[in-house]
Amino acid sequence: MNKSRMWSPIQQLFHSFSLKQRIWLTFVVLITLGLMATGSIAYLIASKEIQRNAMQSSQDTVNQSAQIVNERLKNIGIAIRALMFSDAFKQLMKDVQTNDRSSYYKSLTSLQYVFSQVKFNDSMIESILIATPIGDFYPTSSVRNTANSFYKSEMYEHFKQLNRGFWSKGHVDPFFTGQQRVISLVTEGVGEDSFMVYEPTNVYVVVNVKEDDLRDLFMENLTKTNKQYYFIDAKGEDVNYADRTSKDHFIQKPAFFEQLSDQMKGSFFYTNDKKDYLVNYSRLEVKDDWMIVSVQAKDDLLAKLNGIKRATTYVIIGFIILSLFITNNLTYLLLKPLYRLQKLMKRVEENDLSVRFESVYKDEVSQVGFRFNRMLDEIKQLIEDVKNRERDKRKAEIKALSAQMDPHFFYNTLNTIYCKSVLGENDDVNEMILALSQMFQLSLSGGRDLITLGDELEHVRQYLAIQQRSYENLFVCEFEVEPELLTCLVPKIMIQPLVENCILHGFKDMTSGGNIQISACTEGDWLHITVEDNGHGLVPEKLLQGIVHPTTSKHGYALRNIYTRLQLYFGDQQRMEITNNDLGGARIELWIPSYEGEEDFHEHEPTG
Question: Distance between CA atoms of 272 and 249, rounded to whole angstroms?
């Protein structure tokens, strides 16, 4: 109890000290820490510099090797395309199309010169096989293994699954004798006609590349000093055989491949059995799931720093022992307020404005912390005020734009109802009045700005019912909407102005034959709405100019109104396209986010 009373005045006195006075009291401690930091920083700087240089050097080497292999494989693909443009191959394709087997030996002889040219241009090519329904074609210098048909091979099945050409990893050549290990390029043969219409030809070209030559190619520029290199695919399996020891099996582990990004090249450190390795990789452009990987132990990478590390460690341990008793509690007490304030600032950077600074001290740091609290309170209130004002402003603009839609339709409808009433067409009058009533009800929508797509389309149907009574036999309208989309939310009175534009402008001077198409579908997270007609069409450039740069002209007013409302609702998360369709009529396309509940909309609601 007495001891507590003795320390209480000292604590109060220490709490009353300024930050400057506390820094002065810890001056000697800071000098000691500075000396300790010097050795550590020197080591870290040297270590990082060596790591950076080694990583860059290793990465450059791997990139260069990958580029050489990629270019070589790409050139082989170009050579095969050149083969397909030869006269002999074109004639072969014609024989295949006509199923003419009588010219088999003539075509086989004609292709020998082409095969020789391809193999001469690239010595890595072991053999070439052209599989066709009328027979196989290959260099006569190669001995064909007739027991294995390409059309019954795994390569053929794999091509059918991918429906495109591909490179296979190392395997024993099944089509020619000699048990030669090869890497194969499989592609579909194309002739002049099939190339234009993109029809399958059932002709396939298989190019076998010597696996030994490919390995020598990618190892040619790679140094083996303290490094292991692998030519692997996305599953960690060797593209061609490699010298792999048991300690390197970690390159096939899922944890290893999780660190390989989708970038074409990169480097990272990987830990296996408590040992760190520097890994560099570079993907091939011709087949991006093939990569050349370099693995080097971090201990080997930093071997030159071992002496510096030991000396630095001894010095640091000495200073730690010397300074341990005076740095423990004193440093904690001095820096505790700063650490706390720093953590609070980091949380504020993450948009957490609920944090508050608390401290028993009365020094400069504490005063800053208390002012920091007041600043947060003011910022939070200002942000809330700005959000409320922007939200109210945006809602007011939306309601104003919705109210500005041209009411001439309602006036024309009332005049039409009056005329039909005078003429005694009571059935039409009844239906038009009912449709107009339902349109008013849907337009009001209980004060909501967002309604379901089903309600919006019902609004359009009521509008069409009225217009078809006013313009009899002028047009028909077709709907193509996926049923599950009817619950999606859309701004009200968005589709009806587009339909009205079709009737008033697209079918102007027409008496019959008009057709309006309304469709809605999903594209990922987007709701895609299209309204098009077969009318006179429009001038998209002029309308787009009027939308982007509004004028007082009423031309394109409805489209400009819709575009502005979509911007207010969704910001940049929307798109409108104005074009003419193949029939010459207008096509208006809208893309908006697909929301099924107002909570989804408010979660992504623009604030500006």
Answer: 10
Nearest CA among 13, 20, 26, 19 for reference residue 327:
26
Q: How far is CA 545 from CA 336, 549, 557, in A?
A: 61, 6, 12
- Cα torsion 584, 454, 555, 413: sign: positive
Q: At residue 319, what is the residue type?
A: F
Q: Write the DSSP string, 496-556.
A: HHHHHHIIIIITTT--S-EEEEEEEEEETTEEEEEEEESSS---HHHHHHHHHS--S--TT
Alpha carbon distance 157, 214 (integer Å): 25
Task: Compute CA 414 distance to the chain's CA centroid, rounded to the nearest angstrom.
Answer: 53
Handedness of CA 78, 80, 81, 86 (dihedral sign): positive
Give residues with Cβ within 8 angstroms of 451, minimum separation 6: 442, 445, 489, 490, 492
Give the rounded distance of the alpha carbon of 513 from its chain centre.
Answer: 45
Percent of the chain with pLDDT over 90: 9
Residue 420 corresponds to which amino acid? K
How far apart CA 434 and CA 422 sit, in angstroms, is: 18
Task: Report yes or no: 55 and 267 within 8 Å, Cβ to Cβ.
Answer: yes
Which residues does 561 contact at the CB level (< 8 Å), separation at least 6?
401, 404, 405, 497
> pLDDT of 344-359, one tens digit each?
778 777 777 777 777 7
588 forms beta bridges with 531, 578
Distance CA 597, CA 174 (A): 59
Per-residue DSSP letter, 102: T
- The whole-angstrom separation of Cα 279 and Cα 296 is 7
Res 29: pLDDT: 53
SS3 content of the chain, % helix, strand, coil (to 5): 55, 20, 25
Which H/E stretch holds residue 210?
strand 204-210
Contact in structure between 366 and 337 (CB atoms under 8 Å): yes
Positive/negative CA dihedral, 7, 10, 11, 12 = positive
State the pLDDT at residue 405.
44
pLDDT of residue 128: 92
Query: Which of these, 370, 374, 363, lies nearest to 341 by C-alpha position?
Result: 370
Q: Single out the residue of 585, 540, 547 nearest to residue 566, CA to CA.
A: 547
| Confidence check: pLDDT of 399 > 60 | no
Instruction: Name the 3-class secondary structure at 268.
Output: strand
Distance CA 494, CA 559 (A): 9
Query: Would the pLDDT of 401 be above 50?
Result: no
Cβ neighbours around 239 below 10 Å, total: 25
Alpha-helical runs (H) found in 248-363 = 254-258, 298-301, 306-349
Q: pLDDT of 34-53, one tens digit each?
A: 766 776 777 777 777 776 77
**Are 191 and 97 within 8 A, CB to CB?**
yes
- For the four alpha carbons of 440, 480, 535 and 430, in that order, the dihedral sign comes to negative
Length of the chain counted residue by residue? 608
